[in-house]
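Researcher: Sequence recovery benchmark, item below. Answer with residues only.
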C-alpha cells in the first residue's frame, strides 16, 4: 500500500516537474534581443539601440585590459602578472579595484551574525517546490537571474518578484565576463537588465559575475549601468554535485556544515556573510531546503542582500520599496512593509508587448504553478 502510494506520489511529482518544464510560450515580443544563451554578436551591436547605448558609455573610464582566453572551457591565467594589476577575482579573489573611480565589490553582509541568502542561475522551470518553501517560511532571498532564462521562463521570473525576492542580473549567457570584448560584456549586462524590465517591470541595480569572473574593466562597464558587483565570502559549491559536477552529496553537506559551525562558534559575531547557492536544479534546491533550518538556528538572521545593506529602493524605479534591515528582521512572521506596486509591472512603453496574460501577481503565481502555455523561443 505504502509503496503503491509512494509510486503514485513519485509519478505525480515527476508529472508536475515535466509539466512545469514543458516548453511554453509567452506573448512577450522578444525580438531585438541577443540569441538565447549565446554571447551577443554584431547582430545586436549593429542596431541603433545598441549604438546609442554604446555611445552613452564613457569608455575613458573603462581600463584598457585585454580580454582573457578560455582553454578547454576553463579560463587561462597563463602569463598574468602576479601583482594583479586588474583586480581580477579569478586570479586571487581581489574585490577592491586597483583602478581609480571604480566601486569595490560587495562581499559580506555587514550586520553581525547575518547570513545573506543568494541563489544564482534562475529562474528555473522546476522551482515551484523551492519557491513554495521560501514562501511558507516568509523568507526572501536575492536571486541572480540569467537573462536567457528570464526570456525562456517569464512567468517563473515574475513569481520571484511577486514573492518579494530581490532580483539582480547574472548576465545573458553565463560566460566568463573577463574573456569578452567591451561590447559583448556591455550587451550581456544591458540585455539582461532589459529583459528583466520588460518581463518584470523593474530595473535591477546589482549583478553577480558568473564564476565570480570580474576585473576592473568589467566592473567599470557594470558601474556605468548602475550595477553594483556582488560576490560572496562563503561558497557552498552546491552546483558541483554529481551528476552535473564531481563532488558527492556528502561533500556539499560538509561545506554547509562548516558554514553552520562558523555561525555557531562566533566566526560571524562581528560581521555577516554572503553565501553562494544556486537554484540551478533539483540537487541545489534540495540542499537549500534541507539546510535552511540549520542555517536559521546557527545565524541570528537570514536576509536578502538588499536588507542587510539597508537598501530600501532596490530598483531604478523609485516607487518600489523594500524593507530595511531592522524592518526585515522585525517582521519574521511575514514582512508587512514590503510594498509592491503592481502598476509597476507593465512592460516598458518602448517594448511593445502583445501580452494579454500578465495582469496581476496573483494570476501570475497560479500560472507559475500550473502547466504553462505557449511556444518555445
Ligand atoms: C516585435 O517587435 C519588433 C521590434 O520592436 C517589431 O518589429 C515586430 O513587429 C514585433 N512583433 C510583433 C508580433 O508584434
Ligand atoms: C562603441 O564605442 C567605442 C568607443 O567609442 C567604439 O570604439 C566602438 O566602435 C563602439 N561600438 C559600436 C558597436 O558602436
Ligand atoms: C585541451 O584539451 C586537449 C584534449 O583533451 C588536450 O590535448 C590539451 O592539452 C588541453 N589543453 C590545455 C591547455 O589543457
Ligand atoms: C543610473 O542611475 C541614475 C540615478 O538614479 C539615473 O539617472 C540613470 O539613468 C541611471 N543610468 C542607467 C544607465 O540606468
Ligand atoms: C569555527 O568553525 C570553523 C569551521 O568548522 C573553524 O574553521 C573555525 O576555526 C572555528 N572557529 C572558532 C573560533 O572556533
Ligand atoms: C560570539 O558571541 C557569543 C554570544 O555573544 C559569545 O558567547 C561567543 O564567545 C562569541 N564568540 C567569539 C569567537 O567572539
Ligand atoms: C532546471 O531544473 C531542471 C530540473 O531540476 C533541470 O533539468 C534543468 O537543467 C534546470 N535548468 C533550466 C534552465 O531549466
Ligand atoms: C526534487 O525532486 C524530488 C523528486 O522528484 C521531489 O520530491 C522534490 O520536491 C524536489 N525538490 C525540490 C526542492 O524541488
Ligand atoms: C541599517 O540601518 C540601521 C538603522 O538605521 C542601522 O542601525 C544599521 O547600522 C544599518 N546597517 C547597515 C549595514 O547599514
Ligand atoms: C512606478 O514607476 C514606473 C516607472 O518609473 C511608472 O511607469 C509607474 O507608472 C509608476 N507607478 C505608480 C503607481 O506611480
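Model:
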Amino acid at each position: 500500500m505504502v509503496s503503491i502510494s509512494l509510486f503514485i506520489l513519485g509519478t505525480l511529482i515527476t508529472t508536475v516537474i515535466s509539466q512545469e518544464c514543458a516548453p511554453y510560450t509567452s506573448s512577450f515580443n522578444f525580438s531585438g534581443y541577443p540569441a538565447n544563451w549565446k554571447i551577443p554578436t554584431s547582430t545586436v551591436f549593429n542596431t541603433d539601440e545598441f549604438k546609442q547605448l554604446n555611445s552613452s558609455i564613457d569608455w575613458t573610464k573603462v581600463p584598457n585590459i585585454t580580454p582573457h582566453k578560455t582553454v578547454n572551457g576553463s579560463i587561462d591565467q597563463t602569463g598574468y602578472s602576479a601583482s594583479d594589476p586588474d583586480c581580477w577575482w579569478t586570479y586571487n579573489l581581489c574585490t577592491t579595484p586597483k583602478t581609480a573611480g571604480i566601486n569595490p565589490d560587495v562581499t559580506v553582509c555587514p550586520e553581525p551574525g547575518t547570513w545573506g541568502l543568494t541563489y544564482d542561475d534562475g529562474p528555473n522551470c522546476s522551482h515551484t517546490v523551492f519557491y513554495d518553501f521560501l514562501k511558507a517560511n516568509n523568507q526572501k532571498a536575492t536571486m541572480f537571474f540569467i537573462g536567457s532564462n528570464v526570456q525562456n521562463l517569464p512567468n517563473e521570473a515574475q513569481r520571484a518578484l511577486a514573492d518579494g525576492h530581490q532580483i539582480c542580473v547574472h548576465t545573458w549567457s553565463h560566460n566568463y565576463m573577463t574573456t569578452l570584448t567591451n561590447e559583448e560584456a556591455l550587451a550581456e549586462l544591458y540585455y539582461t537588465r532589459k529583459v528583466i524590465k520588460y518581463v518584470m517591470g523593474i530595473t535591477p541595480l546589482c549583478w553577480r559575475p558568473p564564476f565570480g569572473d570580474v576585473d576592473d574593466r568589467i566592473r567599470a562597464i557594470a558601474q556605468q549601468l548602475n550595477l553594483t558587483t556582488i560576490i560572496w565570502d562563503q561558497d557552498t559549491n552546491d552546483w558541483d554535485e554529481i551528476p552535473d559536477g564531481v563532488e558527492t552529496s556528502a561533500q556539499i553537506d560538509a561545506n554547509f556544515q562548516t558554514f553552520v559551525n562558523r555561525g555557531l562558534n562566533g566566526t560571524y559575531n562581528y560581521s555577516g556573510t554572503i553565501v553562494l547557492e544556486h537554484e540551478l536544479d533539483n540537487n541545489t534546491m534540495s540542499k537549500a531546503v534541507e539546510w535552511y533550518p540549520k542555517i536559521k538556528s546557527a545565524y541570528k538572521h537570514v536576509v536578502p542582500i538588499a536588507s542587510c545593506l539597508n537598501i530600501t529602493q532596490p530598483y531604478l524605479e523609485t516607487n518600489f520599496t523594500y524593507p530595511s534591515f531592522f524592518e526585515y528582521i522585525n517582521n519574521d512572521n511575514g514582512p508587512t512593509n514590503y510594498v509592491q506596486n503592481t502598476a509597476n509591472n507593465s512592460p516598458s512603453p518602448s517594448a511593445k508587448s502583445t501580452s494579454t496574460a500578465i495582469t496581476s501577481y496573483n494570476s501570475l503565481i497560479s500560472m507559475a504553478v500550473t502547466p504553462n502555455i505557449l511556444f518555445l523561443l
